[in-house]
Amino acid sequence: MNGGTRQGIDLTRVLHAPQRRVFAAWTSPEDFAAWYGGEAEVPLDRVAMDVRPGGAWSLVIVLPGVEMPFHGVYREVSEPDGLVLTLKDGSAPKEAEGEIVTVTFTDLGDGTTELAFQQRGGSLTPAQYAAAEDGWEAFFDALAARLATHP
C-alpha cells in the first residue's frame, strides 16, 4: 500500500472459538482487559464498558512509567455479529470523533470464527496507521491466547 495514501487498517483473523465467545471477548471487561494492550497491563478497575448504541467505553493501558488512555462510544451493537465503535487515545482533540472501528464476527462452523477488523477515520499519519496495525496484530495474538485459555 502506498504509505502516503493510507487511510486505515484492514485485518482478518480466524479464531478458534465460537462466534458468541468472540463477541463476549470484545464486550466483557474481564476479557477485553486481558487482551487489549497485548502484553501490556490493562487494570480491570480502569476498564468501563456500556455496551449499547451510544454507550461509552474506556480503558487505560499501563506500561512502566506511562499510562495510555483509550476511549470511545459504541455506534452499533449486533450480538453476536459485530460492533461499530469510535476509538480515541489521550492525544486526540476533544472535539474529534476519533477513528471508527468495525469488527464483524462470522461463524465458520466447527467452533471457529472469522474476525474482520476495519479501522477508518484518516486522523492518523501513515506511520501512525502502520504502528497501530502492528499493535492490533499483537492485540489479536493476545485475544487468540485468551480464547484458548478461557474457552
From TrEMBL:
Q: Which family does it belong to?
A: Belongs to the AHA1 family.
Classify the source by domain of life.
Answer: Bacteria
Organism in which the protein naturally occurs: Streptomyces nanshensis
Domain (Activator of Hsp90 ATPase homologue 1/2-like C-terminal): residue spans on this chain: 17-147
Q: Which residues form a coiled coil?
A: none
Any Pfam family the entry gives: AHSA1
Fetch the SUPFAM superfamilies from UniProt: Bet v1-like
Q: Which InterPro entries does the record associate with it? A: ASHA1/2-like_C, START-like_dom_sf
Q: Report the protein name in the record.
A: ATPase
